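In the design runs reported in the main text, the only information available to the sequence generator was the tokenized backbone. The following block is the verbatim input for one such run; it is reproduced so that readers can re-run the procedure and compare outputs position by position.
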């Protein structure tokens, strides 16, 4: 394996994530583009890679749509843009807000 700091991979099937794991074990930054995979396969790949990153005590960041990057524990990074959040919940509702029912009396 060549001595690079960052590896760019674009898996086309689940079995390709084994290459990702080898680079993660070697403490490389791995940029993973899952655009060519359907939702089910990309979730399987991400779950598998997440396990490898967790064992290595690293972290995964999501810099774009279906783009993930594994960061080893001994590396640092900087994101110079605001991350978009795909918050499904409605911002009007707050978990701490008490909802008091109102009843119409006749």
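Verbatim output:
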């Amino acid at each position: 394996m060549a001595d690079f700091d960052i590896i760019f991979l674009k898996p086309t099937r689940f079995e390709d994530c084994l290459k990702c794991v080898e680079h993660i074990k070697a403490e490389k930054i791995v940029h993973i583009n899952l655009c060519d995979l359907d939702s089910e396969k990309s979730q399987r790949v991400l779950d598998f890679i997440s396990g490898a990153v967790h064992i290595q005590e690293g972290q995964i960041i999501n810099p774009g749509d279906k783009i993930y990057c594994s960061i080893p524990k001994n590396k640092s990074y900087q994101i110079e843009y605001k991350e978009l959040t795909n918050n499904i919940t409605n911002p009007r509702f707050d978990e701490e807000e008490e909802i008091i029912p109102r009843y119409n009396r006749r």
